[in-house]
From TrEMBL:
Domain of life: Bacteria
Protein name: ADP-ribosylglycohydrolase family protein
MF terms in GO: hydrolase activity; metal ion binding
Transmembrane segments: none
UniProt lineage: Bacteria, Pseudomonadati, Verrucomicrobiota, Verrucomicrobiia, Verrucomicrobiales
Amino acid sequence: MNPLLLSSLIADSIALGPHWIYDSAVIDQHFPNGLSGFENPRSSYHPGKKAGDQTHYGDQTLALVSSLQKRGDQWTLEGWREDWQTFWKTSTSYRDHATRETLAHLQQGSTQPSDSGELGGAVRAVAVVATIPPDQLERRVRVARDSTQLTHGDPQVVDVAEWLVRVSTLIENGETFAEAFHKASLNLPPVLQLANKVTQAASDDLSSLRMVGKDLGLNCGLDAALPLALGLCLRFENDPVKAVVTNALLGGDSAARGMLIGWLLGARHGISHWPESWFDNLHAARA
């Protein structure tokens, strides 16, 4: 499996246990010793999921990988729409707002996407960099934008998907996170300034970073999730395990943030930093 995709799926699965729990005290009750591997979900949003599974973000990313591999150079938005609908005919994965609204529109004969402005729509583009080589940047960008706008009508989400692809390509070519974040053009100027709140936190202690997380916001929207995820990338650029575990224990929509963090850490370091047991226990790695 491509190392960027594998790293993203690892971070998604690490987040599954505490995903969408916003109360840090509740997270600590469930995980008094922190996280050292994959856990069963503790919230009600992922029925049937087990430790080592993916959230709905990871599941849809793998569906996009399958679509891209099946269709190759003939991949189109229309083909992806067909494959995505087929995926949802049998999947028991959680149907978030973007999924429910897009499916409802399709049932009414409309291809209009949802109005979602959530980070989860953009991080699916890791499937694009996993299947299209970095020397085909413009194709990467086109497919990232098209695949994202199937379900997410907020143009900023589509722009962030493109930005992440451009950032990822720069990192794959040897840039640091800071260099890549600044070189890739993103028309969301406050994002990197907000991300600096994470890098400027008093310490790496979870309690200190939780204060920053609550300040930025732990919800699904781009305004909160993107700067928090980028800040964790910058703070733990050379400690991938701490990055994804800390992210998961912050709570909220840790899975969308985690997929972004894992993706970029995979671009920076490959898979050498992940514990061997995580590869063994990640179900997608054995599929």
